[in-house]
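so my prof wants the structure for this chain in the tokens format not the other one, which i didnt know existed until like an hour ago. anyway here's the sequence
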Amino acid sequence: MFQCLAGTEPGLVGYWPLNEGTGTVAVDWVAGNSGTRYSAYWTADTPFGPMMSASGAYLGNWPFTLADLETGDTRVTDSNVVAVAGLPVPAGYDVCQLSASPAVSAINPDSWVSTNTLPDRFTLSTTAGRGSLYAWFTNTAASVPLRRSAASIVHFPAEAALDFRASAQNRVTMTPDLYPGVTNLTLTAWIKTSTVPATNSYGSIAGRGYLYGSNGFGLFVSYDENAYFQVRNGASILQPAAVYPFDGNWHHLAGVHEGNTARLYLDGELAAESTAPLASIYSEGVTFALGMRDSGLGWDFPFEGAIAEVRLWKSARTQAQIKDEMFRCLADTEAGLIGYWPLSEGTGTAVTDRTDAGNNGTVVNGAAWLKDKSVAALLPVSRDPSRQGYWPLTLADLTTADSLLTDSNVVAVARFPVPTGYSSYRISTSPTASVAGPGDWVAVTAPPATLAFADTVSGSRAALFAWFTNTAASVPLRRSGGSMIYATQGPALAVTTTTARAEMAAGLYPTLTNLTLSAWVKTSTAPAANSYGSIAGRGYLSGAVNGFGLFVTYTGEVQFQTRNGDIANIAAAAPYPFGAVWHHLAGVREGNMTRLYLDGELAAESPGAVTNLYTSGVVFGLGMRHNGVDWGFPFNGAISEVRLWNYARSRREIRSDMHYRLTGAEPGLIGYWPLDEAEGRWVEDLTAAGNDGRMNNAGWEFTADFIRVRPPPGLKIRIL
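here's what i got, hopefully its the right format
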């Protein structure tokens, strides 16, 4: 029973070892009655592998167990150092050694230890995925065959998620034509977004062949502020929908297709269902993906948010099963699980499917990993029972009530949800369960009014954790948490790479003639020889296009340029004081005069007629310049408080509000990007025009020190 055969044994009429490992053919070694694999997958099963062998050295079965040192979980661990539990010894064997390799050549003759003193822990590879350990046995005083046993555990080195807001067209793509035989299914994911898709658009979460045209299934959010699970055969559609909160918190979605019924679950509760018969839900040539949808012709409908723990089952899961599994990591061996992408890699562009199907994905266009403790440690799904669940703790600045940004390490507790059945809590700055042991527990009837961060670094996220228990009953330890960005100075847009920018739509502001464009900027680096650093505008700096813009030059100047293609190019220029200090720039076009103001003072002006400042198809941008075809001339530094007015402002007007935030409703203000979001990948235009911009490879820094508190209404101020 433990020995592989040769296929020539007398009386043997059929023998399928099923050890091909790849392909669709299962070979019969006897009569050639080979089979075809259909909707099954090859597995390298470590407990079974050592039992069956053509070598006498591997014959037998003495399975043992690996476990997480902290949680005791035998399925998954977040550490590559694991406990070795229940290691049986074959009768007649007195020494053992552990190895990460299944090969005999890995045995070290000097590393045998007595079976009476077996090691209690072992260090696995640091690589994410299933880690295996092999136990080798022999007898130093007798002639016995070498024996081998094995165990395995799934190693998740990080709790992480994937942020699809980093740049346009972010997605994770697998290979086309996956899951052709799937009809009944369950597709689940945790998502986090506060961005409602644009009018008549959608945000694709996971699936293939959904949203127009093809056959398929998928989860998505919509411009109508609903979440959907869609199953379709061409124009025949099942798509239960539920109102989605778009509150920036984590929420769990599960789509289930069973027979003629499709169901959508939101946070474990049945939200909607639809019933109608459908034919095939499979189309050839369509790719299963996360974050965007493949139509079969191209990619569209990007998701603006974070995704974690995507799972695909070839069966309809019940509500009880969904609720039981939604808060915990899986072991990847669960029956019916055909796709499992935890998105826990935390780095790189490879996304691993933990099931034996091995349908791994590739991150395209630079989606960003969320893995710092303020984000990843607050994920509602975990391998650790104490971290499973979601009761988001909301913190706020004591002065502004802002729940995102604070300049104090003492913050208000705006929301303190308590898990049902829990009576006491403790506050900690650590996400580790060891800090929540016996100690001073506080009754949940007395929630904290304020809390203090520790070890705060300006510009970083600071997190606090609430641990819950019941002092009168036996309950699992539970953990909640909240975080804020702590910064002693204000946020600004950081554009420090050669492709960093924020881009708005093309075709904006077609009728502008007189105008004022202003911004705060900080840069220590002059552009390279014969190059420029673009700050804000459209259609400026060379090319047969019309436009206007602010930029710095390789000669050490700052310029405001208005141009009518190659016909007229009028620029006001002045020396720029490069360094780590913020400076205010304002470019003004009035009649035939182009002016430049530096820190509120007129620095230069140039006369000259420019009859047209507009070319269709040119994009208004920050940090780079668009010429109607592509982007160029990157700025290296930080930008804040970009404003566009439809009239020429005077020196007095520029100086009157350059240090104050605006509301966006000021007369004549047609574009206002404060660039104070501090996180995310969109910059908001606060005017009624709403010309928001998408960030591309840009980031945030917290150095803006020029904003002042606006004086109270009625106070007279003299502007010099």
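also thought this was worth mentioning. Helices lie at 319-325, 651-657.
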